[in-house]
Amino acid sequence: SSQEPKLNFKKSKEVCLSYIQDAMLQKQWKRAAEFLSFYVESLEKDFSKEYVNPSEIIWRVGTEILCHCSNGSMREFNSFIEQMKTFGVKRYLKVCLEHAFHLLCNGQIDDAYQNLSLAESWRYGEQTAIQDKEMKLIQAYRGLLDYYSWSKQKNILLDHGLDEFENLSVEQEMHSYFRKAAVNLKEIIKIPGVWDLFVKCYVDLLEFYGDHNEAHQVLTEYAYNSKFPANPNAHVYLYQFLKRHGESKKSLISVLKILHDLVPSHELMIDFNTMLQKSKKRKRCRLGLEVIFAVLDYAGWKENVKAWSCLARQVKQIAIAEKHVDWIKQEWNSRKDWWPAFHFTHYLAKQNWKESESLSYEKALVAGILLGKDCKYFKYVSHQGCKAQVKRFRILKKFVNKHNPVYLRIS
Predict the structure, then answer these.
(1) How far apart are alpha carbons 368 and 349 in whole angstroms?
(2) CA distance 307 to 296
(3) Which site in 3, 9, 149, 409 is 20 to 30 Å from 218, CA atoms measured?
(4) pLDDT per position as a tens digit, 15-50
(5) What angle do CA 22, 24, 30 make, to 5 degrees?
(6) DSSP of 362-373, one letter per residue?
(7) In 265-387, which ranges are E strands?
(8) Are the C-beta atoms of 20 and 32 separated by less than 8 Å?
(9) Which H or E run includes 247?
């Protein structure tokens, strides 16, 4: 029938693509390249009237194959990419951007910059307006390379003893790079999105030239603008900036509170807990206990001495004062069914004792208060500590026995 050639072509094309995919998954790059050449040839022989737009497939598959072929050279890659740029104008800027990334990965920074500059001057009728976002990305990455050049000049200025004339020359070149980088970086971070690297570079430029107010405003906007996606790093950058410039603890706590809500297991939660514990406000101390319990819910913190030390210190203070035991009880109620198996088994006691005496001590103190003096973890560690005649373990054993009523109130 008249439909048969079209159906056969469509089927053979799909089979060829599946062979390419299979070869790539098995890292058989030569085989994948052979199938890709068959695929391109079959398209050239296709005389059907059906519209076929395979340019993106050929671009993406071809790029992947060339990147992994052991005998593939930059010359071959550049030649292929240049052909892809003219293969489909709708993807021209995306191909240019990928080409720049590949050049950067191979250390060809000047070529990457030139590639981005040429892409920035590209115009093609209505496509220019349609690809406005891609154009902004091209400009932003060019700004990033301008920042890189600025940073190199800055290091020359700071690390080398230059005479007055050389200093002036370097400073002028630096300022030229600063202007070009700042313009493009400032533009991209206005668009809602995740622009971590661009924001960091722009803030570095502003801080170097003493424009702290602008830097603060940029970071605040990046962290709190509701149009931007929730991004933990935005709050990390703001916190680090505020800390560098000696802002109040109230400001630092405010930023870390949001970070805690987004990522309760973040490494800055130790700093957050320490700040909260030092506070005289009851509400902050309560939050500190919540923060450190939440940190230790995650496997990555299981053997972290600092985290257990923070919890042990606060639990010990509460036990001695015999106040706010209900805080511990509230946190423990949601964890008592799984924390014993997660943190306080006999096996873990043996492993922890073998690897770290300090970790064993902090965990044993917490285990003794939360699970009582008959807890397997506490009994094993305190026995080993006393057997080794380590004084602080004898004191630990007495402390837990003395404050066993706290365990009874919690349980």
Answers:
(1) 13
(2) 7
(3) 149
(4) 888 888 898 999 888 888 888 887 877 665 554 444
(5) 110
(6) HHHHHHHHHH-T
(7) none
(8) yes
(9) none
